[in-house]
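Box 3.1 A note on notation
Throughout this textbook, protein chains are presented in two layers. The first layer is the amino acid sequence; the second is a token string describing backbone geometry. Keep the layers aligned when reading.
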Amino acid sequence: MSATLRRPHERVAALMPALRVARFVLAVGFVAVMLVVAVRTVRFGALTWWLLVPALAAAVVWWVLLARGWAILAGGRPSRGDMGTWCRTQVFRYLPGGIWAPTSRLAVVGGSAIDRVATVAAENLVSLCAALALGGAGLAAGGRPVWAAVVLAPLFPLAGARLARSRTRLDNPRLRQATANGLLAFTAYVAAAVLVQAAVSGWHEPFLVAGAAGVAWAAGLVVVFAPSGLGARELAYAGLLAASFPHAEAATAAVVLRVVTIVAELLILMTVGRPLPAAGEAAGR
């Protein structure tokens, strides 16, 4: 490389650590703002507060496992670098349009164009199918057997592996591991939802609550025009529980669950999502 071309490249390389820190600070600030907005809509007076502690712990497990699932698909194994990338790019889902988080991961995942698209699509499909499967199982166990059909949803990513394995990085082991990881993640998520609903209204219909939470999360994912599924997820949750809970209690629990998951996201962003030094980041990949 000539000296003329090398100098701009060296300047950009020298700025990269500062840019990574700035991006991290911006991401933390963005999530903190969303937390403040969510908290302002909650009436906390009647909550059983201690139940929110295990709910937060379950939400943290869920968020870590979602980041781990991305790392499995992107790199073949969990790594701090790939999990941190997911945490930082996931913040962009709060922007209007709801597509900016996956779009940003397209830019950073590496590989051919089809590799990038397939990896991002697989991440979303695995999460969608895991949420639907857990949601369908919960609703069926709670007395709505028609939902049992969606319990088989996790088979779709595994079937897709046969089409993608010859042209992308998505081989059978990656997709099997990511699917199992996704089911564990959403087991933690629906557990958090059950604990939050119990904090609002007591221990009633835990299977229905778990099922509604899983299906509502999936609904928020596919309603791409709503940033992070805001509104759509809460409406779906309250609607699915309308026959079993007063609307005010279901709606309150939906918003409190949103607050709990944002707190979990902020905690993980400030730990796992911190930018690594250049050498460590390279090693993580």
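Residues 13-284 form one domain. The chain has one domain: 13-284.
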